[in-house]
Design goal:
single chain; about 170 residues; alpha+beta; 6-stranded antiparallel sheet; about 30% strand; globular
């Protein structure tokens, strides 16, 4: 009997996931999204996701844009997936987006130069085994992403706090 890990987290409660297929490298796709969609994606430290099957971490390149307090965009792709015929990138949308906004975004991304396809990942009752595996993997990725962002926030707040020597007291005679 196989051991199954259930994180108890369903990413569809907070995230919309768009799968983008292109032969572009991650920075090329990021550039096109920034230029044509007026995004502001920037590179963050690579995301490490633990793979229970292989008992090792897998690295994902990570780009982020937070235009306001209510919306976050994350572009992720597995580092070293260049042996795959058609690499997939995932654009994670966090926040409240209308169906029309998402459909419009899908249409605009699909029209980008060298983008082959873009579609939303949706889990249904009829989802096949390979898609269920992908959804399970996305749950782990997003779960680790949340922890990763907390760690980055801690490091950034530590960098901005003053760590210099205390000032000398000046006494007037």
């Amino acid at each position: 009997m196989k051991n199954k890990i259930n994180s108890g987290f369903d990413f569809q409660d907070e995230y919309i996931v768009l799968e983008i297929s292109t032969l572009l490298p991650d920075y090329g796709l990021c550039y096109r999204l920034n230029k044509n969609m007026r995004f502001g994606l920037h590179r963050l430290k690579d995301l490490r996701v633990y793979q229970a099957r292989n008992k090792e971490d897998v690295l994902y390149s990570l780009y982020n844009w937070s235009p306001n307090r209510h919306h976050d965009y994350f572009l992720i792709s597995e580092v070293g997936q260049y042996s795959v015929l058609m690499p997939s990138y995932y654009l994670l949308l966090k926040g409240i987006f209308t169906k029309d906004n998402v459909n419009s975004m899908i249409d605009q991304i699909s029209c980008l130069d060298q983008v082959i396809s873009c579609h939303e990942l949706r889990y249904t009752k009829n989802t096949g085994a390979s898609m269920r595996k992908l959804f399970n993997q996305m749950n782990f990725i997003i779960n680790d992403l949340e922890y990763h962002l907390i760690e980055l926030q801690k490091k950034n707040s530590a960098k901005t706090s003053y760590k210099g020597k205390p000032r000398k007291k000046i006494t007037l005679n």
